[in-house]
Design a protein that fits this description.
Blueprint (H helix, E strand, L loop, with lengths): L9 E3 L2 E5 L2 H12 L4 H15 L9 E8 L4 E7 L9 H6 L18 H12 L4 H14 L1 E2 L2 H14 L20 E2 L2 H13 L1 H5 L2 H12 L6 H5 L4 E3 L2 E5 L2 E5 L6 H11 L12 H21 L10 H5 L1 H8 L21 E9 L4 E9 L6 E3 L4 E3 L29 E5 L2 E9 L3 H14 L5 H6 L3 E3 L5 E4 L4 H9 L4 E4 L9 E7 L6 E5 L6 E4 L1
């Protein structure tokens, strides 16, 4: 394992948690130290992130998880993404002159799946009581936490969205964004978390919280009903997988974009990039072109498989990737590809947990845009996601808006296994960067032997919706010119200037010794901690 980072990877034997906020990682580690398993720890960390990264995640959002069962040596996938209202209507949205669903409108709000996801994970895979797992989050919401610079800046940028409605102040400090180091409390959110801790998922989907959410959305002209909420439950689904140079890479199936990451790996496998040099112009060229081709297929076909035929097996076949790979030239970038313009960058949190028995939980939780729709159900402290903007208003598109339909989803957790044993629990938050981050992290570790921290520290690219590719600022001018000479449309940006390059967490496990090695993305506030 090659080490190329200024920050060492973290090593442990009895358990590890990696996420984007240290106090959230600590909450998960405490659960592990008290006898909980990886699933208990992941949900505890995710719930704390609901409080300390309120612009990114929360009970008003969605969740996906992959669970590795060390005894059965198997991967399970949980889809806790919500569907649209039974009253959803393309015609109604268009009647107001909209070409796309407005991101801050009640039409953008889909049923939140997070709480059902948390509860399902704990009751079916955890070892601790649900209320115990939520205790740290409730405590931070009620007694307060210190605001960090990165989150404080994100909230400051999104505050105008919250201030469009009086209830948005529930997620601000005295009606304004908190400054770095200030203590922040969310009493309304604490009460909602406590209600869920006491009453389980039913307290959210069939109690006063559900009534509050539906009445608020309807008062703004939206569709969401108490029946939409009451009938929702998270769903166990079969994970999808491809083998990349001897490593089995696992993702959640559509409606998530994990398929994009796996298709890109299939395409990249045909190029021997380990001989081309780490982040050389040739290597970056093949990575970018593989990702662009994967998006060309994925963004057209990925939708809710309960309502649309998604040809997953064909798209993941080696025959398909071989045929598509013929479009990639070493000397020239493919013609410009334009993607759906409403699939923008996103605010998301990711948690990776591995316990001492070798169980793992790779979990991702999101409101989509910062504070989602910007709509906060009054008296609850719950920001409601705007995942509905991912729907197309073209009735012939596989991902078109329809009643009780799940939209295309950007958030994707991942697991990798080697020779039938857990190797990695990993993920990279950040809109469409997520599939790209998975591709780059796996390539960094498999093709170039980097350790988890170095794989996350490495410079990234982002294939954009307008056909351009953005490189992080410390790529060399010579490399940029070489890519431009092949026809790539290159832009340049700092990784710390926004969410464009995401933020990842990786935990690796040595099956022989049980030693855990972890890394946490320097683009975020977080850390990996173990014992």
């Amino acid at each position: 394992m090659q080490f190329n980072s200024r920050r060492s990877p973290v090593f442990a034997r009895n358990g590890m948690v990696a996420t984007s906020q240290p106090i959230a990682a600590m909450a998960g580690l405490k659960i592990l130290m008290e006898g909980g398993n990886a699933v208990d720890a992941a949900v505890a960390s995710a719930a704390v992130l609901n409080v300390v990264e309120p612009e990114s995640t929360g009970m008003g959002g969605d969740l996906f998880a992959l669970v590795w069962d060390a005894n059965r040596k198997s991967v399970r996938a949980l889809n806790a993404s919500g569907y649209s209202s039974s009253k959803s209507s393309i015609a109604e949205v268009k009647s107001h002159g909209h070409e796309y669903i407005p991101p801050q409108s009640p039409y953008a709000v889909t049923v939140p799946g997070t709480v059902s996801g948390w509860h399902t994970l704990i009751t079916e895979c955890g070892t601790m009581p649900f209320a115990k797992v939520l205790e740290p989050a409730i405590a931070y919401a009620r007694t307060g936490f210190a605001m960090t610079p990165i989150i404080g800046d994100a909230i400051d940028q999104a505050a105008p969205k919250l201030l469009c409605h009086p209830s948005g102040k529930e997620l601000l400090r005295d009606g304004r964004p908190a400054q770095s180091g200030e203590i922040v409390k969310f009493p309304e959110l604490a009460n909602s978390l406590q209600a869920v801790a006491d009453g389980g998922a039913e307290a959210f989907y069939k109690g006063d919280i559900a009534k509050n959410i539906s009445s608020y959305i309807q008062s703004l002209g939206g569709w969401l009903t108490t029946e939409d909420l009451a009938s929702y439950t998270a769903e166990w689904v079969d994970p999808i997988q491809t083998n990349y140079r001897g490593i089995d890479c696992w993702e959640c199936p559509p409606n998530g974009q994990g398929l994009n990451a796996l298709m890109a790996l299939n395409l990249l496998e045909g190029f021997n990039i380990s001989e081309l040099g780490f982040q050389s112009s040739d290597t970056i060229h093949y990575l970018v072109e593989s990702m662009r081709l994967a998006f060309a297929d994925g963004l057209h076909f990925i939708a809710d498989p309960n309502q649309t035929i998604v040809p997953v097996a064909r798209m993941l076949s080696k025959e398909h990737s071989t045929a598509r790979r013929s479009l990639i030239s070493r000397d020239h970038a493919m013609d410009r590809i334009t993607y759906d313009p409403h699939l923008r960058d996103a605010d998301t949190v990711y948690v990776s947990c591995v316990d001492g028995n070798g169980n793992a939980c790779s979990l991702i939780n999101s409101l989509f845009h910062s504070f989602g729709s910007g709509l906060v159900a009054p008296g609850t402290g719950i920001a409601l996601q705007n995942r509905g903007i991912s729907f197309s208003l073209d009735p012939d598109h596989p991902n078109c808006l329809a009643p009780r339909k799940r939209p295309f989803h950007t958030i994707i957790p991942a697991i990798a296994t080697k020779n039938g044993d857990l190797w990695l629990s990993y993920g990279v938050m950040g809109g469409l960067q997520q599939a790209q981050g998975h591709l780059q992290v796996i390539s960094n570790m498999v093709d170039f032997g980097l350790d988890p921290q170095s794989a996350l520290d490495a410079r990234r690219f982002n294939v954009n919706l307008d056909g351009t590719t953005t490189l992080e600022q410390d790529f060399s001018p010579d490399l940029i010119e070489e890519l431009k000479s092949r026809g790539h449309l290159i832009t340049h940006e700092s990784g710390r200037a926004g969410v464009l390059f995401g933020g990842g967490q990786v935990i690796a496990r040595d099956p022989a010794s049980g030693v855990l090695t972890a890394g946490s993305d320097p683009r975020k506030d977080g850390c990996a901690i173990g014992w």
